[in-house]
Amino acid sequence: MAAVRLRLRPNDDSFYEFFTKAAENIVRGTELLTELAMPKADVQSVSERLVEVEHDNDALTHELYNRINSSFVTPFDREDIYQLGSQLDDVVDHLEAVGSLLYLYGLTSLPSLPREMHEMVAILDQQARLTAKSLPGLKAMKGLKDYWVECNRLENEGDRAYRMLLVRLFSGEYDALTVMKMKEVADELEAACDAFEHVSNTVETIAVKES
Amino acid sequence: MAAVRLRLRPNDDSFYEFFTKAAENIVRGTELLTELAMPKADVQSVSERLVEVEHDNDALTHELYNRINSSFVTPFDREDIYQLGSQLDDVVDHLEAVGSLLYLYGLTSLPSLPREMHEMVAILDQQARLTAKSLPGLKAMKGLKDYWVECNRLENEGDRAYRMLLVRLFSGEYDALTVMKMKEVADELEAACDAFEHVSNTVETIAVKES
Amino acid sequence: MAAVRLRLRPNDDSFYEFFTKAAENIVRGTELLTELAMPKADVQSVSERLVEVEHDNDALTHELYNRINSSFVTPFDREDIYQLGSQLDDVVDHLEAVGSLLYLYGLTSLPSLPREMHEMVAILDQQARLTAKSLPGLKAMKGLKDYWVECNRLENEGDRAYRMLLVRLFSGEYDALTVMKMKEVADELEAACDAFEHVSNTVETIAVKES
């Protein structure tokens, strides 16, 4: 496992640093998912690296919580920082679950995954990059509205792709057990998409309080 | 789309007005679901009107949030008003999902839907009418206990109908793919039923604080 | 139905007493589940006793809420007590659902349930006993960290068993409808496991505030 080190300096920057690092780690996660969804991916290697991403995020979150508990002053409400950390963690958990289920259910041995599943992975990757680009804006409270509006738009797009994916899964193209397996993966993709929106909702809450 | 206009007057009545309008809009939603569940319904037209109901509710909720943010004084806790708005929105989202899934999965072309599904729609319609009748009571804080007790009773009835619906779905009467489609619809019906209860729980919280 | 009587004395001990009684009632629940999962269990009798456990818990929770509302002083934050009561109630609801679904879907007439399902029941029983042993520690705020660390570890173990259960269910060993029925039961087992963790998270929150 690659070690993640987050220096917690006595000033507040460590909080912003956490959000930046966590979001960059999440981009690693969606890149791995994109790789995994490709035909002939080295499935075992990729899903092991996804588990690493999850462990790295756990380590980051743990440091964040320690930092919250040991700080007299925090840049914004303690509970909002806590929630943001926990919601970034949820994103990673769902990304890891997608990888593990694709692997455990043997779905990556199919000639190809449904087109709508690729669409959902692409949307998650866009949400991840947007989040990584925008969270550093928490420091100066800049550019955040564009972020949450766009993140919400992507979540709506993800919802549509999810609905269309289910229509395809239930169309008779696959046998019942394959449908059930893919449905589990689809649900995790959709939960990841929602989880990104929860992050952006919390950023909105913080920005509204600060304004 | 029919335009919904909510005048936000400088006094507090606009909040009560919002809840009344949102609840009346929800009654439109459950009426449309009742129509949709009938054999030979004009499925496309009804589900389009359900989408309108959802858009109208989004507009109402948006106005409510603006109103909360621009008010110095609110008739009860800001966060409770926010939560009530968001929970009424959840109800509508689940009702719209029921309509869309019935349509997208082609379930309305079946000779008939399972009896327990009709029961669930009827319970939702009762919850909607009860909510529309009761929310105006927030102004004078009257008749609210009867509302939340009855809404809870209806939710329990919905739970029982949901369980019996699953027993029927898994009984072998339908093929596996049809069961999976109907299960998705059943889950949205059950979520709508729960969402009504969440509304009534928040009303209870508000009433207890005020008493 | 066996009557549960919780004397609410004027001092604070009644709160601790509630948590102890609720946790002991939950142990009754997981014992019944263990019995139910055995071949040749008297299914109807056991699932009726599970419903009793649920009713007893409802009565306990109701008394707790009355007690919270009628107390000027509470041993820790009112909302944390409320949440703990409600989360213990969630555990019981999921345990009762497991029993009812096994019975309603006729799964107990199978020669045996999948090994991973027995594992999940065993984990729930461990979580229940751990909770019953640890909650009395709330009074002196002792031994609680070991509790939440261990409860979390058990939840992770439950997650692994759940994933492996789904892999087995989707392996082709069972027909599609049986898979769907067992999936419903598996989801309730997993939700119960999570619900125990939510209880321990709230205990952690309380302990951190008090420290």
UniProtKB/TrEMBL annotation, chains A, B, C:
<protein>
    <submittedName>
        <fullName>Phosphate transport regulator</fullName>
    </submittedName>
</protein>
<dbReference type="InterPro" id="IPR052912">
    <property type="entry name" value="UPF0111_domain"/>
</dbReference>
<dbReference type="InterPro" id="IPR038078">
    <property type="entry name" value="PhoU-like_sf"/>
</dbReference>
<dbReference type="InterPro" id="IPR018445">
    <property type="entry name" value="Put_Phosphate_transp_reg"/>
</dbReference>
<comment type="similarity">
    <text>Belongs to the UPF0111 family.</text>
</comment>
<dbReference type="Pfam" id="PF01865">
    <property type="entry name" value="PhoU_div"/>
</dbReference>
